[in-house]
Queue: 2 jobs
Job 1
Amino acid sequence: MQKLALSDEILMNIEKPVRYIGGEVNSIVKPKEEVDVRFCMCFPDVYEIGMSHLGIQILYDMFNKFDGVWCERVYSPWPDLDRIMREKHIPLFALESQDPIKNFDFLGITLQYEMCYTNILQVLDLSGIPLLASERGEDDPIVIGGGPCSYNPEPIADFFDFFYIGEGETVYLDIINLYRKNRAAGGTRRDFLEMVAEVEGMYVPMFYDVTYNEDMTIKSFEPNNPHAPKTVRKQVEMQLSNTYYPDSPVVPFLQVVQDKVTLEIQRGCIRGCRFCQAGMLYRPIRERNVEFLKEQAVKMIKNTGHEEITLSSLSSSDYKALHELVYFLIDYFKDLKVNISLPSLRIDAFALDVMSKVQDIKKSSLTFAPEAGSQRLRNVINKGLTEENILNGSMEAFHGGWNNVKLYFMLGLPSETYDDIEQIAVLADKIAREYYSIPKEERNGRVQITPSTSFFVPKPFTPFQWVSMNHEEEFREKARFLKSKVMEQLNAKSIHYKWHDSDLTILEGIFARGDRRLSQLLLNVYKKGAIFDAWTDHFKKELWYKAMEEEKIDLDFYVFREREKDEIFPWDFINAGITKEFLWREYQTGLSEKVTLNCRKGCARCGAFEFHGGICYETREKEEVTNDSKN
Amino acid sequence: MTVRIKFAKYGNLKFLSHLDVMRFFQKAIRRAEIDVKYSEGYHPHQLMSFAAPLGVGQTSEGEYFDLELESMGTTDEILEKLDAQMPDGFKILHVSLLPPTPPQTRKESLMALVKASDYLVLYKGLKELPLTKEEFLCKFSEFVKESEILAIKTTKVGDTEINLAPFIYDVKYDVRPTELTENYDNGLCIYVMLSAGNENHIRPELLMKAFHEYLGIEYDQYGYQVHRLEAYAKPENEFIPIFKLHENEV
C-alpha cells in the first residue's frame, strides 16, 4: 500500500479525503524499476468532475499500455486542502504513487472549459513548477495542454511547453520515444521541444512570435524557430474501432458526477449547427463498429461493476446501428440490472420505445434542444429541429404517459430579435396546449414544460467566430423579457422558465476568442486568489473586474466586437480540417436564413475531406455515382 | 437465501465513508458475478444490510453485511470470488449461510443483532503526552474502574450526558496488534470492549476523550488510531462474535 502524501490529521480535517488517496479499483501502479517515463494526467477541477471524464480514462489506459511508461492522475485540490498545502508547503502529488508531480517527466493537462484556467495555475503553483514555460528549468516536467480549448490555446500559451492539437490516440508514443531519444543523447529541454514541434499537431508557443496592428488585432503570427511549422494540423484518429479504449476504467470510491460506463459510439457530428464548436472540430464523423461497441460494453460492465451504461456522442440518433446496439444492450443487461441512458437522442418512436423500457415514465422527462424559439432563427443557426418535430414528438410521448418536457435554448444568438425570444414562450405554450387537447381521462395529471436558456458565447472554428457577443445587460434584459412573455401565456402555470446567470459568460467570451496577451490577466487574477471560477460559491467576480482594469483589458475588443472577414484570428495557425472560407460561407448562409444539408445528405465542402475517411467518403462517393449516372 | 459476510477495512481505505463502503461493495458484488437478489421496481438495488457503521479514519477486521442471493454454490466460492475483487484495503474474512427465516417471523436485522464491539486503541506517539507508557497504562486502569465516567454524547436530537462506566465490558493490556492494524513503534495498545448497536452505542473516542479529561491533558483526536476487532451479538447471556452465531445450525 502506498504511503500517503498527506497525514491522517490533514485528511481527517478536509472534506472528502478519498479524493486524495488513490488506490481505486483498476487504477494502475507499476514497479518503479520498470518505468523510465513518468506521466501525470491532470483534469484541473475537483476529483468528482475530473473522474467523470471519458477522455482521461482513454488516455490513462493508453499510456499505461506503453512499456516503461507509468501514467498517473491528479485533480485540483479543493480550496480547503489548497489552503493547507500552501500553509504547510506540501507539494502537489499524483494519486497512484503519491509522489510529487515536480519529479515527473510530463504533466498533461486537459482543457475542457475556459473557466478552469485559474485552476491550471493552481496545479502548477502547488506542484512547485514555474507558471511560465519560459522560466522552467531542465528538471521541471514538460507541461502539455490538450482537449477542446487547445483549439485556441493562445490565452494560456505562456503556461504550456506545448499543446497537442487533436485526438490523443495517435502520436503520443512517438512523443514519448522522442523524449527518450533526446534524454539518451543528453539533449536539453529546448532540443526536445524542437523535436516535438516537427510532429504534426504539436504547437510549441514559444517558437512563435505575434505582432499587432494599431487597432490591437493581430498583424502577423509567425514561427521564430526553423523546426516549427507555419500551420499546425490537428491529429485525427481514423480507426476508431481499432484503437485504445479502456476495458477496465478506474472505478472511483466516491460518488462522482458520471458514475457509470461511458461508451463513445461515434466521434464528430453530421449536423453542422453553426454555434456548435464540437460539431465543427471533430469532423469528419466517424462511427465505431457496432460489434466492437457490444464487446466493449460487456467487458467494461464486467470489469467495473457499474450499474449504468451511457452512450456518448454529439447526436446519438445519427449513429446508423443505434437500434441494433440499444436493443442488444437492453436485452443483454436486463438480468444484470444495468441501466441504459441515452442522452442526445432525438425524440421519435424509437426513442420513446427505448425510454419506456429503461426509465420510469413518471419520473423521466423528454428533452428537446431547439436552441432558438423561432423557425427563422433556427434556420440561422442551422438547427434542423422543427416545431412540427417537437409537437409531434411531445404528443406521441404524452400518449405514452410522459408529462414532463425540458427545452433548451440560447439567448444572444446572431440576428436575434425580441420576436424570436417571444417565440420561446409561445412554443412552450403550444406544447402545453397539445397536452391539454388530450381528453382529461386519458391524461396523466398536469403537464410541466421547463424551458431553460443559456447565453450564447461565440467560439473559434464556428461560422459565428466573427460575431459580437451580447452585453451582460442585454442578456439580463432578454431573460427578463422572456420571463414576462412566459407569464402572458395561456398555460403559464405549466411553464417553468429557468435561466443561467451571465456572470461567467463574459469571461468565457474573453477567453474563447482571446489572444496571448491574456496570460497576464490570468496571472494577475490568480495572484489575487481566483480559483475554481466555474463554481458559483468560489467565483469572485470582483477579483476579475479588478484584474481586468489593472491589465487594461478592453472588453469591447475581445467580446463585443464584430470581426472583419479577413482578420487574422489567434487560432488561424491551426488547421482543424475546416477551412476559414467554409466557415465564412456558412456564416453568410446563416445570415440569409438558409440551412445547409447535413453531411449525410450532401457534402458542404468544409475541408474535412482531407482526412480521407469517415462520412466524407461515403457522401462524396454517392454524389459522384449520382453525377456519373446523370452524365 | 442470505449469506453473512465478514470483512476487514484497513490501511488507506480507512478514509472511506460508510456510504462509499456500501457503494464499493455493490460494484464488487457485480464484478464477482454473484447471483445477488434485487429489489423490484425501476431502480432495483441489491438486498444488502450492514452492521454498525465504522467511523471514518478507523480500521477494522470486524465488519459485516448480509446479502440476499438468488442462487449460490458454496460459501467458500462466494468468499473466493468476492475476495478476488478486493483492492488493497479490503479483505473478505468469512462467509456463512444463514438459516432460513421461519415463516411468519420477521427477519432480524444485522444492525439489531450487534450488542458490543471490541477495539484496539493504538497511540501514535507519546511525545506530546507528559507521562510514560507505564504511567499511561496505570492511569487508564484506574480510570476505567471509576463507577462514574461522564461524557457528552452528541446525537441527532442534541447533546446528552451519559455515564460510560456500565458500558465498558472489558479492558485488557496484553492484546497485540494484528496484521491489519497500523503499527506504531511505542507499542502503546489498549483493548476495550464497549456496548454497541442500536442502543447505547459507545464510540471509543468518547472514552478516550473522557480519559484525557480525567488526566487533565489536552485531547488530540488524531493522536491515536482505533481498530475494531469484532462485533458481538448476545443471544442469551454471553457475547458471541457475529460470525459464530449460527455455526451449528446450518
Job 2
Amino acid sequence: MLSAILWTPLAFGLISLLAPRRFAPWVAGTGTLITLVLAAIVAIGFDSSQGLQYVVDVTWIPGLGINYSLGIDGISVFLVLLTALAWVPAVAFTASRGTDRAGLFYFMLLAGQTATLGAFLAQDLLLFVLFFDLMIVPFYFLFGIWGSDREGVTAGSATVKMIVFTLIGSLLMLVGAVAVGVIAADGGQLTFNMAELAEKGLPSGSQNWIFWFFAAAFLVKMPAFPLHGWMPDAYRAAPLPALAVFSAVLSKVGAYGFLKVVLPIMPDAVELFQTTMLIIALGSIIYGSVMAFTKIDLRLILGFSSVAQLGFITLGIFALDSTGANGALLQMINHGLVVVPAFLIVALIAERTGSEDIGPMGGLAKKAPVFAVIFLIVTMGTLAIPGSANFIGEFYILNGVFNTDVAIAIIASSGVALAAFYALRMYQRTMHNPLPEGSDSREISVRDGLMIVPIVLIMIVLAFCPQIILGDTRDSVDATVAVSKEAAQ
Amino acid sequence: MNAASWGWLVLLFPLLGSIFIGLTFRRIPPKAAGLVGIAAIAAAFICGIAAVISLQGEPAESRHVADSLWTYASVGGLSIDLGIYVDPLSAFMVLVVTGVSSLIHIYSYSYMKSDAGYHRFFSYLNFFVFSMLLLVLAGNFVLLVVGWAFVGFASYALISYWYRREAATRAGMKAFVINVVGDIGLVLAAILIFRELGVIDYGAVFEKAPEVFTTTNEWTAVAICLLLLVGAFAKSAQMPFHTWLADAMEGPTPVSSLIHAATMVTAGVYLVARAHPLFELAPAAADVAAIVGLVTLLVAGTIAIVVTDLKRIIAYSTMSQIGYMFVAVGIGAYSAGMFHLMTHAFFKALLFMAAGSVIAAMANIQNIDRMKGFYKAMPFTAAMLIIGALALSGFPGTSGWFSKDEIIDFAAFRGGWYEIFAIGGYIGAFMTAIYSFRIIFRILPGPPCEEAAHLIETGHVVHGEPVNPATGEKEDIEVGYPGEDHHIAEQAMGMKIGMSVLGFLALVGGLVQIPGVTEVITHFLEPTFEDSPLAAMHPTVAEAWKGLAKGAVISVVGIAFTWWLYIGRPSVPETLRRTFSPIYTLFINKWYGDEIIDFLIVKPVKGFGRFANNWFERYAIGGLTNGTIAIVRSASGAVRDLQTGMLRGYALLMAVGTVAILLYFLIRGL
C-alpha cells in the first residue's frame, strides 16, 4: 500500500512525460488524485494505538544493511496526507494556466512528490537520506527552467545558490547517517533501520558531532536563521505552483527529520544542545517576522513568515515536552495548509495587478468579496488567530517552551504580535485601501475557487476540532519525546 | 432545557445569522439581510432571558452550569473542552450584550441604508455579537482567548469597513495589533494557570486556586493576574493600551456605538469580575487594576474636555467611564462595576446613535465647532442627546447617577488609602459633567449652521459630494459609501426606535438598583460573588444616600458651570485656553500617548527591521551565502575543466563526493 502511494506520482509523471502534450496535465492530475485517495485510505485506516503500521521491509543492499523499508506512524501520517493533498492544486493550477514543456514540468513536479513522500515514509535511515537528497533535484530544474529572472538575479544563479546550500547540508547528513550506522554496528552487522538504531544507541561523544551534521541539513531545508540565505532568491525565481508545494511541504521535512531521526537516535546530544537549538529557533521567529514586515514582495513576505513559523515549530520540538512537540507537529500541518492557498492567491493577485509588490497595490476586494474573504481566512490562519487550529499549535508550543524556559517563551510570544502585523499588512495592502488605476478587481473564478476553497474548508474544520489530528499523533510524538526525556534524567 | 442549553442557543443564532448573510449576499435583498441580522440577535436575547429564568429556578448555591460539546484539543495532560459556563455573571452579560445589540442592529438597519456593503456590514455585526457572547460564555481560559480574539477581529473588520479610506484601514490595523498584544497576555496567563493549577476550566481553577496559593500575593498568582490585566487593558482601552480607541472612530457610527461603547470595550471589566477569585488572592494586582482605572478615567476626562471631534469626545468619555468600572472591580465593588457597565451601555450607545444622527445631517463633518442650532433642526435627536448627557454626567434620578455613585461610595466605604478612588471619582464626575454638556451647549442652541438650516428649510439633509471628511478627497462610492438615501438623519424609523428605547433605559435604568429599595442587580449577581469577602461588604443605606447626594451636587454644579462657560460667558473658554496654554497643548495632544508608544515600541521595531533588511541580511547573511558558494565554486574548479557547464560540474562534485565518503566509511567499517 505504501509502495503504491510512493511510486504512483513518479509513474504518472513518467507517463505524462511520454504522453502527447495535451494529455500531460490530465495524466498528472489523475496521478495526484489517486495518490490523495490512497493516502486518505491509509490515514483513515490508521490506528493511533499501534506504533508503526503498513510496514514494508525488503532487503535492498544486504552487504551494507540497507533495506527498502517503509512504514507510517503518528508523526508521518498527516504529513503524508498533506503531501498528497498539496500537489493536487499545484498540478491543477499549472494545468489551468498551461506551461511550456508541460510533460517535463509535470514529470519533475511528480518526481518531487515521490521523493517527498519517500522521505516521510522511509524507515531506513539511508533510504531517508536518499529521498531527502533526491527531493531537491526536481525542484532545482523546476525553479531553474520554469522560473523567472528578477532584478539582480537570474533564475539560474538563484537555483545554484539553493542547490549548493542544500547539497552541503545533504552531504553532511549522508556522512552523519553512514557514521550512525557504522558506529552503532560497532563492528557487528550493519543496519540502518531507524527503530533498531534508536534502540542500540550511540556513544554520546559521537552523538555530539553527528547531531550537527543532521541539524545542518534540516536547518538549511527549513530554512532557519541564519542559514536562510538561499531562500529569498530562490523564492523570487520559482514558478508559484511549484513554490507552493515546496514551501508547504519540503520545509516540513527538515522539522520532521528532527522529530523522527534526531530525537530518538541522538537523545544525549539533543539534551546537550537543547538551549542552542531553542535560541536558533527564537532567532528564526524574531528575524523572520521582522524581515517579513520590511518586505514588499508578496513571495518574500510569505517566505520570511515561513522562517518564523518554522522557528515556532523547531521551538516546540526542542522544548522536549509532550505539549510542545505535539503542538509543533500540528503546526507543521497547519502551516502547510495555509501556505498552499497563500501562494496560489499570490498568483491570482499577480494576474489581477501585474505585480507581486504590495507597494502600488490596493482595493482588490472591491469587486471581489469572495476572493477577499478567502484571503482573509488564509491571513487569519497565517497569524494564528485564536480559534484557528494554528492557534492551538502555537498555544501548545508556547506551553511546552514555558515549561522548559520561561524567558524564551515570553520572547517568542512577541513573534505572535509581529505575525499579526505582517500578515494583516499583506492583506490590507492588497485587498483594502483605494484601488489604483490599472488594477483589475475581478472575482475569483469557480475553477480557481475549486483549487483553493477545499483546503480553506479543511482549515475551518480543523479550527473546530484540532483534536482530529492531535488524537492520532499524540502517542507517537509522546514516545519520541519520552526518549529524550529519559536521556535528560 | 437547562441554562447551558439555552447558552448554546444564544451562541448559535448570531453565528448562523452571520454565516447565512455572508453566504447569500448575492441572493437576498439588503432589507432581508438586515432583518435576518436583527432576528438572529433578538432570538439570542430571548434565549438569554430563558437562560436567566432557568438559572433563577435553581437554588442560589447551584446557580452555575458548565457544559461542553467535545474535546477541543488534548495532549500532554492539557485538555481543552469546547465548553461554556453559565452563571448569573455571564447571563447578565448576555442580556446586556444581546439587548443593546438588538437595538443597535435596528438602528443600523436604517442608518446603513443604501450602503453598498450592507450585507457585509450585517454579517460582520452578527459575527461580532457571536464573538462577544463566546467571550462571556466561554467555560475555560483557552476558549476565553478565542472569544477575545474573535472580538478583536470583528472590531478590526468593522473599523476598516469603509476600507477605501486609508485612515480607516490604518485604524483597523492599530486596533488589531494592540488587541493581539492583549491576547498574548491572556495566552501566557492561561499557560501559567495550567502550570500552577493543572486545570483550565473556570470552575476547577477557582476551586483550586485558594488551595494552591495559600498566602496572599504569591508572585505566581500576581503574575497570572497582571497578565490577565494586559489582556483586559488592551481590550478596554485603558492606559497604556488606549490609543487605538479614538482612531477606531473611523468605523461607521453604529459600530462605535456597539463595539466601542456598549460591549467590546467592557470585556476587560467582565474579565476581572469573572476572575475575581484569583484577584482576591493577589490583591496587589487588583490594586493595579484600580489605579490604572483611576489614571485612565482622569486622563481621558481631560482629553474629552478639549478635543473637538464629536465622536472622539464620546470615545474619550468611554475610556473614562471604563476607568470607573476598573476602579470598581479593582476595589471589590463587583456588582457596582457591572451595574455601571450596564447603564453605561445604555447611555453611551444612545449618545453615539444621536451623534451619528447629527453627523449624518452634517454630511459627515464631525467637528463640533462647525455645528450649531440642532435643537431646532432635529428636536428628537436633541432630546436624546440631552438624555444621554444627563445620564452620563450623573444627573439626579438618571441611571448614571445611581451607578457611578455606587462605585464612589464603595471606595469611600473601604476607607484607608482607597479614599483616593473616591476623590478621583468625584473629580472625574465633575469633568464628565463638563465634557458632556460642552457637546450639548455647543451644538444644540444658537443660530442654525448651514447644514442645520438646510434641514429646517427643506426637511432633507445636505447631499454633499462624497468626500472623505478628513482629507477632502473624493470617495470611491462603490466601496460601501452611504448612498444619497443614507442622509436620512433622525427621520428613519429604525433609528428612532433604537434611540427611544435606549433613551428610556438611560433615564430609568437606574431604578433597578436604588439603595435600600430595589437592589436587583446585587441580588441577581450574589451567587457569582458569594465566595468573595469584599462583595459581602456594603455601605449602609444611609451612607449610600449620602454619597448619592454628593454626586447630585457635583453633577448639577458641573452642568451649571459648563452653562456659564459656553452660554453665559462664551469668551471664557478661549481665555482659559490661552492662559493655560501648556496644559491645553498637553490635553489636545492626548498627553502624547501615540508619540510615546511610537518612540518606545514602533520606532525601535521598525529600526530593527531596517537594520535587518538593509544591513544584516545584505552583508552578514549575504556574505555567508555568497562566501559558501565561492568556496564551493573554487573547489569545483578542477571538475569544471571538463567545461560541461556549471550544473553538471556540481552534479559530478556531488556524485564523486558521495562515493568517496561512502567508500571511506565502508573501508573503515569492514
